[in-house]
Design goal:
CATH superfamily of one domain: NAD(P)-binding Rossmann-like Domain
Cofactor: NAD(+)
CATH architecture of one domain: 3-Layer(aba) Sandwich
Oligomer: single chain
Organism: Pseudodesulfovibrio aespoeensis (strain ATCC 700646 / DSM 10631 / Aspo-2)
Mean pLDDT: 97
Strand content: 15-25%
Protein name: NAD-dependent epimerase/dehydratase
Largest sheet: 7 strands, parallel
Number of helices: 9
CATH class of one domain: Alpha Beta
Bound molecules: nicotinamide-adenine-dinucleotide, uridine-5'-diphosphate
Order of helices and strands: EHEEEHHEHEEHEEEHEEHEHH
Strand order of the largest sheet: 3-2-1-4-5-6-11
InterPro entries: Epimerase_deHydtase, NAD(P)-bd_dom_sf, UXS-like
Distance between the termini: 47 Å
GO molecular function, one term: NAD+ binding
Low-confidence stretches: none
């Protein structure tokens, strides 16, 4: 019989939307999980169901400060991801990405742990290359309102690759494209949760700009497969960066109509100003992920939206 070694895994941002799913999956795989979070956008509700598991531990801690722990692997996800939250305290957002990366890399170096960085499609900015391949360097406004997030994540990538070259650290960098699904907070502010909650409440659906801008939406279970696959299935010399997302591309107006159709809502679409530097198009080229780990998303938008609508319906019933 093959017995898998139980690993001790640190997940920063572990009570957030993606982090809670990663913690859950790692525990299901038989690992020990240390969830580190300052609960800025993360919520206890997202990890309550894991609290009875003796192999799950939670530490309230801000990753901009040093952390001492002994683990085998680190998933670094700490960072607010929704524009309204990362723009609320932009200086703290940059610190979280940059100081957070330095501390987690310093920790990984000392204990010789393999470390994953949750990077983002935002490193491509408002992309001039479409779909985006990993060798595209991007088009980011370094002084705009999104820069605290975009440039913070770009600098974090720089740090990961320098720790890899300078200290031989085992790194994995995943560039995550828009992901949605159960456990997003109702007030998260990103487009899928906004539209679904608005539709279920019968409120106006707020489309920013003309709604012609595109995004490619990945269901959370597919994304978790991709992240875990990157850590577990690729050799040490495969560092990434690798795009993780669903190549199905939709305009924001199409998304709004799909949500209205699915929920049978009487909500009206209203148009609001487009925030500055909002990227016009975004779609991952996932050739590299397919080749490196045989990964591709399986859940199309409509199917994922059905599960997401069910989730938010339950939240609204119990709210
Ligand atoms: P989220 O806001 O739900 O989760 C982020 C978590 O990090 C929260 O639990 C928050 O409390 C925690 N956090 C923030 N600052 C911290 C700090 N200084 N110290 C400790 N914890 C801190 O967002 P998410 O969607 O789960 O995103 C998780 C990660 O994935 C982020 O790094 C984000 O940039 C990246 N990402 C997400 C998406 C997406 O579509 N969901 C896309 C690209 C990249
Ligand atoms: N660090 C940490 N935990 C550790 C080891 C290091 O938080 O177990 C932090 C440390 O405080 C430092 C950062 O990681 O600020 C970078 O560490 P590194 O050893 O790379 O650099 P140095 O300490 O030489 O600046
Ligand atoms: N958006 C929108 N209405 C909303 C929230 C967002 O039209 O209520 C738009 C937003 O302007 C952007 C797209 O939807 O063009 C995706 O926004 P989100 O904040 O989800 O992610 P990001 O812009 O970081 O990709």
């Amino acid at each position: 019989m093959i017995t898998m070694k139980k690993k001790r895994v640190l997940v920063t941002g572990g009570s957030g939307f993606l982090g809670s799913h990663i913690c859950e999956r790692l525990l299901a795989m038989g690992h020990e999980v240390l969830c580190v979070d300052n609960f800025y956008t993360g919520r206890k509700e997202s990890i309550l169901h894991l609290m009875d598991n003796p192999y799950f531990e939670v530490l309230r801690h801000d990753v901009t400060f040093p952390l001492y722990a002994e683990v085998d692997e680190i998933y670094n996800l700490a960072c607010p991801a929704s524009p309204i939250h990362y723009q609320f305290d932009p200086v703290q957002t940059t610190k979280t990405s940059v100081h957070g990366a330095i501390n987690m890399l310093g920790l990984a170096k000392r204990i010789k742990a393999k470390i994953f960085q949750a990077s983002t499609s935002e490193v491509y900015g408002d992309p001039a290359v479409h779909p985006q391949t990993e060798d595209y360097w991007g088009n980011v406004n370094p002084i705009g309102i999104r820069a605290c997030y975009d440039e913070g994540k770009r600098c974090a990538e720089t740090l990961f690759f320098d720790y890899n070259r300078q200290h031989g650290l085992r790194i994995k960098v995943g560039r995550i494209f828009n992901t949605y699904g159960p456990r997003m907070a109702m007030d998260d502010g990103r487009v899928v949760s906004n539209f679904v909650v608005q539709a279920l409440r019968g409120e106006n659906i707020t489309v920013y700009g003309k709604g012609e801008q595109t995004r490619s939406f990945c269901y959370v279970d597919d994304l978790v497969d991709g992240i875990i696959g990157l850590m577990e299935k690729t050799p040490d010399d495969f560092t990434g960066p690798v795009n993780l997302g669903n190549p199905g591309e939709f305009t924001i107006l199409e998304l709004a109509r799909e949500v209205i159709d699915l929920t049978g809502s009487k909500s009206q679409i209203v148009f609001k100003p487009l925030p500055s530097d909002d990227p016009m198009q975004r779609k991952p080229d996932i050739t590299l992920a397919r080749k490196a780990m045989g990964w591709e998303p399986k859940i199309p938008l409509r199917q994922g939206l059905v599960k997401t609508v069910e989730y938010f319906r339950r939240c609204l019933e119990t709210a």
